[in-house]
Amino acid sequence: MTHTPVPAPVQAMIDAINDADTDAFVAAFRDDGFVDDWGRVLRGPEGVRSWADSDAIGAGARMTVLAVATEGDTTRVHFDWRSSVFNGESDGIFVVAGEKLASFTIPPVH
Fold first, then answer.
1. Is residue 51 within 8 Å of residue 37, measured between CB atoms?
2. Suppose 6 and one of 11, 55, 70, 101 were both cysteines; which one would form an S-S bond, judging by CB atoms 3.0 to 4.6 Å apart?
3. What is 8-106's CATH number?
4. Where are the beta strands (DSSP E) in the chain?
5. Could you tell me which residue ranges the SnoaL-like domain spans (predicted)?
6. Where are the domains of the chain?
7. pLDDT digits (tens, 9 = 90+) for 51-109
8. Cβ contacts of residue 30 below 8 Å, gap of 6+?
9. Is the distance from CB of 95 to CB of 107 less than 8 angstroms?
């Protein structure tokens, strides 16, 4: 991955996490958007909010982008994550649809 600009919808989600702003986090997603965290899929505003509450903002998360690669509507981000749930580097796959996120996937590490 190379350092390329982070698409605005992706940056909005990252900023929401780092600003501890759950409403902004949910607003970064389309109404039919989802978070897929290692196969645990949480859909729609309620699902996205529940993930933010349990695994991100509610866990005091901080997300630091280390590398970005975008092709079409898909952006892959390698990031450092610090929270009360998980600490370490991980990868995220974001799908952008218009001005919002269609999905944020954290794939299992193999």
1. yes
2. 11
3. 3.10.450.50
4. 29-37, 40-43, 62-71, 74-82, 87-97, 100-106
5. 10-83
6. 8-106
7. 999 999 999 999 999 999 999 999 999 999 999 999 999 999 999 999 999 999 999 98
8. 97, 98, 100, 101, 102
9. no
